[in-house]
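Re: folding output
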Amino acid sequence: MKIQRIIVKAKPSRFNKEFEEWETASICVFIAENNENLAVERAVAEIQRRKWEVIRFELTSSLIKERVQEAGGDVWSAYQEAERTGLSFGVFPDNFGAGRGGIPTIRPPRISEKFIDKVVSDVGGQKLDEDGTNKTADYLIEDWLFELKDLQEEGLEQRNRQTKLVKLFEPYFPSGDRIRISPEILTHEDQLKYFDIIGSPIQPQVKKASVQIKNTKANLKLNHAKGGLIYLNTGYGSLPHEIFEHCVERYARKDSRQFETIICISTWTLSNGFESMMYYAFYPPDPRIHVVEKLRVAFGKRFGEAMTQLITGNLPPCQEMGSPLKPVVFNAEGFDVYWEPPVLPKSWLKSKKTS
């Protein structure tokens, strides 16, 4: 009986009680099976049984016993286990100190509506109360009315969107391989379709915000006021900031005359377990409107203060925390699909510089 070696990059499923979903790993399975395809099927089934999800395959091969024996070590031990029991299973985490019982990953404070309330207060604005009948805009800053919206959920986990993405990307993977969500491989025409698919949660929110600005002007007799939209992306990790701002601008200009300025703010975190890097992007990066520039500066200052509080352990006890970006894996229309976030280098593996 041959021993087949299958190595995959995988993520913990949400049912995995040992690891967090952003703690990816390379999983190596040795299977006693002559047929390579059957070995892959058995390996995937075992990976899923152990509450992992395959992101992509890294290696599949038939092992030659004599060479494995010559190499010795852990590989030879795994080979012998597969011969004896039919299977050997190894998990090699990518993160430093991975696992719920390992070193806790530094998690960022979530940028929420309360955070923006403070930013608005910093620039002399005020939060508007609902009138009990009509939903008003959120803020009044000088002669500007701003409505706040937030993308808090990962959009690739929505079933209808998954189906549309498979139909869009399938022609780019003719051999039936696992589909990687990577808009850079699309033609210009298909990229526009991609924007429509992943930006679909944005359009109704923009329309709703437009109505709220219009109603607030009428209800508070502020017909002279200018309208603006502040749109956060704190949870749609697979939506890059440059595409996010493009979609918001597009729908705002297409569907509303209420907005004279658009502000888009994305926040995200990458972690390798040893280090965590928190990022934000503000659009427009170089505002020409005075109020928008004040908000940009105030947001940056508040963000910096929050990071300092995180490092020094002085965050409020009730502070809601975010999570590092995680891969997304799903199956739709019979295809396995995945998206991977950028990888933070493993600083603990960097070779030391010698003088």
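--- second protein (sequence, then structure) ---
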Amino acid sequence: MPKRILSIALAAIALGLVACNSNTNINALYGTPQPTSTATLTPDPSATAAIITVTLNGSPMPNQPVTLSNDLNGTIGTTIKTQNTDSSGTTTFNGLTGAANYCFSSVYTPTTVGATQQTPSYCGPYWGHGTVVLQFTQ
């Protein structure tokens, strides 16, 4: 009897090894993976303020002028207002129309010899979803 049990156990192990090494299609076992959905960002119609942070090499830039302008098809249009960042490199533009397109920009000329002026900007309707970051490098 013990030989019979040992034979059955060895046969089961052999079948298991064959099954593991048979190049089984994983999709046949578990099904084809479905693509994950991606979130679609939509403008926030209830937003009335835009928070803008300006950084230089990742550090906040205090007293940096930031300009709020009309958005002309993704480019900076007529200036509406300019205000400086606070000590944390942030400024808030209030009284905006939710989901409207605006441009936010700032200008900086690095002190490195031969460096050119930088004007990072954001134009569009998604400013109400959090902080818009304008980044400079030197």
